[in-house]
Amino acid sequence: MTESLNQIYDLIIIGGGPAGTTAAIYAARANLKVGVLDKGLTTGALGTTSKIANYPGLAGEVDGAELLNTMRKQAAAFGAEFINDKAIGTDLGGEPKAVFGNLGVYEARAVIIATGSMGRSNLIKGEAELLGRGVSYCAICDAAFFKDKDIAVIGKSDEAVDEALYLSRFARTVHFFPPGREINVSQEELQNLLETPNVVTHQGSVVREIYGDARVEGIRYGERGAEGEESLPVDGAFVYLQGGKPITDFLQGQLELSAEGCLQVDRENQTNIPGVYAIGDVICTHVKQAVIAAGDGAIAAIAAEKWLRGTSKPKVDWGK
Q1: pLDDT of 319
Q2: In sequence order, what E strands does 189-304 have?
Q3: Of 216, 240, 264, which closes a domain?
Q4: Are residues 112 and 141 in the same domain?
Q5: Which of 240, 261, 278 marks a domain boundary?
Q6: Confidence at residue 142, expressed as pLDDT on a 0 to 100 scale
Q7: What is the pTM of this model?
Q8: What is the pLDDT of residue 47?
Q9: Mean pLDDT over residues 162-184, rounded?
Protein backbone atom coordinates (compact mmCIF):
# COMPACT_ATOMS: atom_id res chain seq x y z
CA MET A 1 0.00 0.00 0.00
CA THR A 2 1.35 3.43 -0.88
CA GLU A 3 1.17 6.40 1.43
CA SER A 4 -1.91 8.60 1.74
CA LEU A 5 -2.34 11.21 -0.96
CA ASN A 6 -2.50 13.84 1.82
CA GLN A 7 -5.71 15.45 0.67
CA ILE A 8 -9.29 15.06 1.76
CA TYR A 9 -12.07 15.19 -0.82
CA ASP A 10 -15.59 16.28 -0.08
CA LEU A 11 -16.78 13.26 -2.06
CA ILE A 12 -15.12 10.14 -3.41
CA ILE A 13 -17.04 8.22 -6.08
CA ILE A 14 -15.98 4.62 -6.63
CA GLY A 15 -16.74 3.77 -10.25
CA GLY A 16 -16.76 5.92 -13.39
CA GLY A 17 -19.71 4.51 -15.35
CA PRO A 18 -22.85 6.50 -16.19
CA ALA A 19 -24.04 6.50 -12.55
CA GLY A 20 -20.72 7.55 -11.04
CA THR A 21 -19.92 10.08 -13.74
CA THR A 22 -23.34 11.72 -13.50
CA ALA A 23 -22.88 11.97 -9.74
CA ALA A 24 -19.51 13.61 -10.40
CA ILE A 25 -21.11 16.15 -12.76
CA TYR A 26 -23.73 17.19 -10.20
CA ALA A 27 -21.38 17.19 -7.21
CA ALA A 28 -18.54 19.07 -8.93
CA ARG A 29 -20.98 21.64 -10.31
CA ALA A 30 -22.10 22.19 -6.69
CA ASN A 31 -18.49 23.19 -5.93
CA LEU A 32 -17.62 20.02 -4.05
CA LYS A 33 -14.09 18.63 -4.29
CA VAL A 34 -14.77 15.35 -6.11
CA GLY A 35 -12.52 12.39 -6.87
CA VAL A 36 -13.65 9.48 -9.06
CA LEU A 37 -11.81 6.16 -8.75
CA ASP A 38 -12.09 4.28 -12.02
CA LYS A 39 -10.29 1.35 -13.62
CA GLY A 40 -10.70 2.39 -17.27
CA LEU A 41 -13.13 3.50 -19.96
CA THR A 42 -14.05 -0.02 -21.13
CA THR A 43 -14.07 -1.76 -17.76
CA GLY A 44 -17.79 -1.30 -17.06
CA ALA A 45 -20.96 -2.28 -18.89
CA LEU A 46 -21.48 0.99 -20.81
CA GLY A 47 -17.89 1.11 -22.04
CA THR A 48 -18.23 -2.35 -23.58
CA THR A 49 -21.55 -1.60 -25.33
CA SER A 50 -21.08 -1.19 -29.07
CA LYS A 51 -24.18 0.81 -29.99
CA ILE A 52 -26.63 2.96 -28.00
CA ALA A 53 -29.61 4.49 -29.82
CA ASN A 54 -32.02 5.36 -27.00
CA TYR A 55 -30.09 7.77 -24.78
CA PRO A 56 -32.07 11.05 -24.50
CA GLY A 57 -30.65 13.96 -26.44
CA LEU A 58 -28.56 11.88 -28.82
CA ALA A 59 -29.53 11.54 -32.46
CA GLY A 60 -28.70 8.21 -34.10
CA GLU A 61 -26.38 5.61 -32.63
CA VAL A 62 -23.34 6.19 -30.46
CA ASP A 63 -20.64 3.86 -29.15
CA GLY A 64 -20.93 3.26 -25.39
CA ALA A 65 -17.33 4.24 -24.70
CA GLU A 66 -17.80 7.42 -26.75
CA LEU A 67 -20.88 8.41 -24.74
CA LEU A 68 -19.11 7.70 -21.45
CA ASN A 69 -16.05 9.67 -22.53
CA THR A 70 -18.26 12.67 -23.33
CA MET A 71 -19.85 12.43 -19.88
CA ARG A 72 -16.43 12.27 -18.23
CA LYS A 73 -15.20 15.33 -20.08
CA GLN A 74 -18.25 17.20 -18.82
CA ALA A 75 -17.55 16.12 -15.23
CA ALA A 76 -13.87 17.07 -15.55
CA ALA A 77 -14.84 20.48 -16.95
CA PHE A 78 -16.75 21.13 -13.71
CA GLY A 79 -13.66 20.16 -11.70
CA ALA A 80 -14.09 16.44 -10.96
CA GLU A 81 -10.79 14.53 -10.77
CA PHE A 82 -10.67 11.09 -12.39
CA ILE A 83 -8.15 8.76 -10.74
CA ASN A 84 -7.06 5.61 -12.55
CA ASP A 85 -7.06 3.24 -9.59
CA LYS A 86 -9.00 0.31 -8.15
CA ALA A 87 -10.67 0.25 -4.73
CA ILE A 88 -9.45 -2.75 -2.75
CA GLY A 89 -10.75 -1.81 0.70
CA THR A 90 -12.66 0.82 2.67
CA ASP A 91 -13.12 2.26 6.14
CA LEU A 92 -16.56 3.85 5.95
CA GLY A 93 -17.16 4.32 9.67
CA GLY A 94 -14.32 6.75 10.28
CA GLU A 95 -14.15 10.52 9.92
CA PRO A 96 -13.04 11.13 7.26
CA LYS A 97 -13.99 7.96 5.42
CA ALA A 98 -11.18 6.15 3.62
CA VAL A 99 -10.99 4.24 0.35
CA PHE A 100 -7.90 2.10 -0.10
CA GLY A 101 -6.61 1.74 -3.65
CA ASN A 102 -3.64 0.07 -5.27
CA LEU A 103 -1.92 3.45 -5.58
CA GLY A 104 -2.87 5.16 -2.33
CA VAL A 105 -5.43 5.97 0.33
CA TYR A 106 -8.23 8.36 -0.64
CA GLU A 107 -10.00 10.19 2.18
CA ALA A 108 -13.38 11.92 1.88
CA ARG A 109 -16.24 13.23 3.96
CA ALA A 110 -18.76 11.27 1.87
CA VAL A 111 -18.59 8.29 -0.50
CA ILE A 112 -20.73 7.17 -3.43
CA ILE A 113 -20.38 3.54 -4.55
CA ALA A 114 -21.00 3.02 -8.26
CA THR A 115 -19.06 -0.16 -8.97
CA GLY A 116 -21.76 -1.87 -11.07
CA SER A 117 -22.56 -5.54 -11.41
CA MET A 118 -19.81 -7.03 -13.53
CA GLY A 119 -18.24 -9.03 -10.74
CA ARG A 120 -17.58 -12.70 -11.31
CA SER A 121 -19.11 -15.78 -9.77
CA ASN A 122 -17.85 -18.27 -12.41
CA LEU A 123 -14.12 -18.55 -11.85
CA ILE A 124 -11.57 -20.24 -14.08
CA LYS A 125 -10.76 -23.76 -12.91
CA GLY A 126 -7.88 -23.49 -10.44
CA GLU A 127 -8.21 -19.71 -10.02
CA ALA A 128 -9.53 -19.74 -6.46
CA GLU A 129 -7.20 -22.51 -5.30
CA LEU A 130 -4.09 -20.70 -6.56
CA LEU A 131 -5.07 -17.14 -5.59
CA GLY A 132 -2.07 -15.57 -3.89
CA ARG A 133 0.14 -18.37 -5.18
CA GLY A 134 0.62 -17.08 -8.70
CA VAL A 135 -2.93 -15.95 -9.42
CA SER A 136 -3.36 -12.20 -8.94
CA TYR A 137 -5.80 -9.39 -9.70
CA CYS A 138 -3.29 -6.55 -9.23
CA ALA A 139 -0.20 -5.97 -11.37
CA ILE A 140 1.08 -3.04 -9.32
CA CYS A 141 0.91 -5.17 -6.17
CA ASP A 142 2.61 -8.28 -7.54
CA ALA A 143 4.60 -7.44 -10.69
CA ALA A 144 7.95 -7.48 -8.89
CA PHE A 145 7.43 -11.15 -7.95
CA PHE A 146 7.47 -12.09 -11.65
CA LYS A 147 10.64 -10.38 -12.81
CA ASP A 148 12.11 -12.27 -15.80
CA LYS A 149 9.32 -14.86 -15.65
CA ASP A 150 6.57 -15.88 -18.07
CA ILE A 151 3.03 -14.87 -17.14
CA ALA A 152 -0.50 -14.81 -18.56
CA VAL A 153 -2.94 -11.89 -18.51
CA ILE A 154 -6.61 -12.78 -19.09
CA GLY A 155 -9.11 -10.09 -20.12
CA LYS A 156 -10.01 -7.60 -22.86
CA SER A 157 -10.74 -4.26 -21.13
CA ASP A 158 -8.71 -1.10 -20.58
CA GLU A 159 -7.73 -2.47 -17.20
CA ALA A 160 -6.44 -5.74 -18.67
CA VAL A 161 -4.38 -3.97 -21.35
CA ASP A 162 -2.96 -1.41 -18.91
CA GLU A 163 -1.99 -4.18 -16.50
CA ALA A 164 -0.40 -6.25 -19.29
CA LEU A 165 1.69 -3.28 -20.42
CA TYR A 166 2.76 -2.60 -16.84
CA LEU A 167 3.70 -6.25 -16.33
CA SER A 168 5.73 -6.25 -19.55
CA ARG A 169 8.25 -4.01 -17.79
CA PHE A 170 9.01 -6.85 -15.35
CA ALA A 171 8.17 -10.20 -16.96
CA ARG A 172 10.17 -12.00 -19.61
CA THR A 173 7.02 -12.78 -21.63
CA VAL A 174 3.42 -11.65 -21.15
CA HIS A 175 0.87 -13.94 -22.82
CA PHE A 176 -2.31 -11.91 -23.35
CA PHE A 177 -5.58 -13.89 -23.59
CA PRO A 178 -8.68 -11.86 -24.52
CA PRO A 179 -11.83 -14.04 -24.30
CA GLY A 180 -12.86 -13.53 -27.93
CA ARG A 181 -11.39 -11.85 -30.96
CA GLU A 182 -12.14 -8.25 -29.93
CA ILE A 183 -10.13 -6.21 -27.42
CA ASN A 184 -12.27 -3.35 -26.10
CA VAL A 185 -9.72 -0.55 -26.08
CA SER A 186 -8.78 2.40 -28.28
CA GLN A 187 -6.72 1.84 -31.40
CA GLU A 188 -3.77 3.58 -29.75
CA GLU A 189 -3.88 1.29 -26.72
CA LEU A 190 -4.23 -1.75 -28.95
CA GLN A 191 -1.20 -0.70 -31.01
CA ASN A 192 0.83 -0.25 -27.83
CA LEU A 193 -0.09 -3.77 -26.77
CA LEU A 194 0.62 -5.37 -30.16
CA GLU A 195 3.92 -3.52 -30.59
CA THR A 196 5.34 -4.37 -27.17
CA PRO A 197 8.11 -6.89 -27.96
CA ASN A 198 7.58 -9.26 -25.04
CA VAL A 199 3.77 -9.40 -25.26
CA VAL A 200 2.26 -12.34 -27.15
CA THR A 201 -1.45 -11.94 -27.94
CA HIS A 202 -3.63 -15.06 -28.21
CA GLN A 203 -6.83 -13.59 -29.67
CA GLY A 204 -9.76 -15.98 -29.83
CA SER A 205 -8.31 -18.34 -27.20
CA VAL A 206 -10.10 -19.07 -23.93
CA VAL A 207 -8.20 -19.99 -20.78
CA ARG A 208 -9.96 -23.04 -19.32
CA GLU A 209 -7.70 -23.89 -16.40
CA ILE A 210 -4.89 -22.49 -14.29
CA TYR A 211 -2.93 -25.40 -12.91
CA GLY A 212 -0.18 -26.08 -10.42
CA ASP A 213 0.48 -27.74 -7.07
CA ALA A 214 1.95 -25.30 -4.55
CA ARG A 215 2.03 -22.45 -7.12
CA VAL A 216 0.90 -21.66 -10.64
CA GLU A 217 2.76 -23.83 -13.13
CA GLY A 218 0.79 -23.16 -16.31
CA ILE A 219 -2.53 -22.68 -18.05
CA ARG A 220 -4.64 -24.76 -20.41
CA TYR A 221 -6.44 -22.96 -23.23
CA GLY A 222 -8.30 -23.61 -26.46
CA GLU A 223 -10.16 -21.88 -29.26
CA ARG A 224 -13.64 -20.64 -28.29
CA GLY A 225 -16.25 -23.22 -29.30
CA ALA A 226 -13.66 -25.78 -30.40
CA GLU A 227 -12.58 -29.03 -28.81
CA GLY A 228 -9.06 -29.72 -27.70
CA GLU A 229 -6.71 -27.57 -25.69
CA GLU A 230 -3.06 -26.69 -25.30
CA SER A 231 -0.88 -26.23 -22.24
CA LEU A 232 1.37 -23.24 -21.71
CA PRO A 233 3.89 -23.12 -18.83
CA VAL A 234 3.66 -19.80 -16.93
CA ASP A 235 4.64 -18.67 -13.45
CA GLY A 236 1.67 -16.39 -12.89
CA ALA A 237 -1.84 -15.58 -14.12
CA PHE A 238 -3.39 -12.11 -13.81
CA VAL A 239 -7.17 -12.24 -14.27
CA TYR A 240 -9.30 -9.26 -15.40
CA LEU A 241 -12.55 -10.84 -16.55
CA GLN A 242 -16.09 -9.55 -16.05
CA GLY A 243 -19.35 -11.17 -14.98
CA GLY A 244 -22.82 -10.24 -13.75
CA LYS A 245 -22.47 -10.06 -9.96
CA PRO A 246 -22.62 -6.78 -7.93
CA ILE A 247 -19.07 -5.69 -7.10
CA THR A 248 -18.97 -5.25 -3.32
CA ASP A 249 -16.01 -7.34 -2.13
CA PHE A 250 -13.90 -4.25 -1.32
CA LEU A 251 -16.54 -3.15 1.26
CA GLN A 252 -15.56 -6.00 3.57
CA GLY A 253 -19.05 -6.43 5.03
CA GLN A 254 -19.51 -2.84 6.20
CA LEU A 255 -22.78 -2.25 4.31
CA GLU A 256 -26.08 -4.13 4.27
CA LEU A 257 -26.64 -6.43 1.29
CA SER A 258 -29.75 -8.16 -0.02
CA ALA A 259 -29.92 -11.93 -0.42
CA GLU A 260 -28.83 -11.39 -4.04
CA GLY A 261 -25.73 -9.47 -2.95
CA CYS A 262 -27.08 -6.00 -3.85
CA LEU A 263 -26.46 -2.91 -1.72
CA GLN A 264 -29.50 -1.67 0.19
CA VAL A 265 -30.39 2.04 -0.04
CA ASP A 266 -33.18 4.47 0.90
CA ARG A 267 -35.11 6.86 -1.36
CA GLU A 268 -32.04 9.11 -1.70
CA ASN A 269 -29.74 6.17 -2.43
CA GLN A 270 -28.13 6.38 1.01
CA THR A 271 -26.92 3.14 2.59
CA ASN A 272 -27.15 2.19 6.27
CA ILE A 273 -24.09 4.38 6.96
CA PRO A 274 -24.88 8.12 6.77
CA GLY A 275 -22.85 9.87 4.10
CA VAL A 276 -22.35 6.66 2.10
CA TYR A 277 -24.47 6.21 -1.02
CA ALA A 278 -24.83 3.49 -3.65
CA ILE A 279 -26.07 3.89 -7.21
CA GLY A 280 -26.44 2.10 -10.52
CA ASP A 281 -26.35 -1.63 -11.11
CA VAL A 282 -24.80 -2.35 -7.72
CA ILE A 283 -28.20 -1.70 -6.06
CA CYS A 284 -30.08 -3.96 -8.53
CA THR A 285 -33.35 -2.00 -8.30
CA HIS A 286 -34.02 -1.41 -11.98
CA VAL A 287 -33.40 -2.57 -15.51
CA LYS A 288 -29.82 -2.06 -16.64
CA GLN A 289 -30.06 1.13 -18.69
CA ALA A 290 -27.52 3.96 -18.79
CA VAL A 291 -30.19 6.66 -18.46
CA ILE A 292 -31.58 5.10 -15.25
CA ALA A 293 -28.10 4.71 -13.78
CA ALA A 294 -27.47 8.38 -14.59
CA GLY A 295 -30.65 9.30 -12.73
CA ASP A 296 -29.42 7.38 -9.69
CA GLY A 297 -26.19 9.37 -9.83
CA ALA A 298 -28.01 12.70 -9.87
CA ILE A 299 -30.20 11.71 -6.89
CA ALA A 300 -27.24 10.58 -4.79
CA ALA A 301 -25.09 13.59 -5.62
CA ILE A 302 -27.84 16.04 -4.67
CA ALA A 303 -28.48 14.13 -1.44
CA ALA A 304 -24.75 13.96 -0.63
CA GLU A 305 -24.33 17.70 -1.23
CA LYS A 306 -27.20 18.50 1.14
CA TRP A 307 -25.83 16.09 3.75
CA LEU A 308 -22.35 17.61 3.51
CA ARG A 309 -23.69 21.14 3.81
CA GLY A 310 -25.78 20.12 6.80
CA THR A 311 -28.99 21.32 5.17
CA SER A 312 -30.82 18.05 5.67
CA LYS A 313 -30.69 15.38 8.34
CA PRO A 314 -29.71 11.90 7.15
CA LYS A 315 -32.76 9.66 6.87
CA VAL A 316 -31.78 6.01 7.07
CA ASP A 317 -34.82 4.00 5.97
CA TRP A 318 -33.01 1.51 3.73
CA GLY A 319 -34.46 -1.46 5.60
CA LYS A 320 -38.13 -0.55 5.18
Answers
A1: 45
A2: 199-201, 205-211, 218-223, 230-233, 236-240, 276-278
A3: 240
A4: no
A5: 240
A6: 86
A7: 0.74
A8: 58
A9: 92
Q: What is the DSSP letter of 263?
A: B
Active site residue 141: yes
Range of the domain at 77: 4-119+245-309
Determine whether 296 is exposed, middle or buried from the number of CB atoms within 10 Å of its CB (0-12, 13-18, 19+): buried
Q: How far apart are CA 5 and CA 304, in angstroms?
A: 23
Residue 43 confidence (pLDDT): 61
Residue 108 and residue 47 in one domain:
yes
How far is residue 23's CA from residue 112's CA, in Å, rounded to a whole number? 8
Domain count, the chain: 2
Q: Is 284 a catalytic residue?
A: no
Is residue 262 annotated as a catalytic residue, yes or no?
A: no
Reported residue count of the chain is 320
Residues 249, 227: one domain? Answer: no
Least confident among 22-36, 93-107, 215-229, 306-320: 306-320
Q: Does 267 share its domain with 199?
A: no
Q: How far apart are CA 209 and CA 124, in angstroms?
A: 6
Catalytic member of 142, 162, 235, 296? 142
pLDDT class of 1 with cuts at 50, 70, 90: very low
Amino acid at 136: S
| Tens-digit pLDDT profile for residues 41-75 | 656 666 556 567 777 887 777 777 788 889 999 99
Q: Are 230 and 139 members of one domain?
A: yes
Residue 314 lies in a domain: no
Reference 236, options 157, 164, 182; nearest CA is: 164
Same structural domain for residues 211 and 73? no
If asked whether residues 112 and 250 sit together in one domain, one would say: yes
Chain-centre distance for alpha carbon 244: 13
Per-residue pLDDT tens over the stretch 119-148: 677 889 999 899 889 998 888 878 999 999
